[in-house]
Design brief:
alpha+beta; three-stranded antiparallel β-sheet; two-stranded antiparallel ribbon; 7 strands; about 20% helix
Amino acid sequence: MLGEFSEITGCILRYEFPARGPPPPVKITWFDGNKTVPRPEELEEGHKLPDIGAVVIGDKGKIVYGSHGAGGAKLIPDAKMKAYQPPASSIPRSKGHYADWIAAAKGGKPAGSNFDYGVPLTEVALLGNLALRFKGQKLEWDAQAQKIANFADANRFIHPLPRKGWAW
């Protein structure tokens, strides 16, 4: 089967994560396709947002960076970046996805992108895809029960019924 798209489309997904003990609640807005991140007013003339990347908005400022950290993270405006003093390194650096995976497979420490990390990340992405099916409907995910708590119709996509002759 061959599909064809006649236009570029996009989406905006809004996620709200509750507080998890000491870490406070977090809101994430994902822009995709032809939906672009609004230009932060702190970004000076002559600077542009990366084509693919992020703008992180915190209580004390904003950070801009390219996909997977390409181009390095940058505080905006430039004056904040110039005044920034990084802390001493305390997190061991990755030798790369493949090297970390091979070391883990040989009995070393778990890779940085192990299942403990990858499963929840994938869950968030898939829930975003599910939200697109129900435009405008806020979906409340119950991670413990693995279902949408406030909109039962969405759950048919989470645990679909098997085809005739098959069972879970």
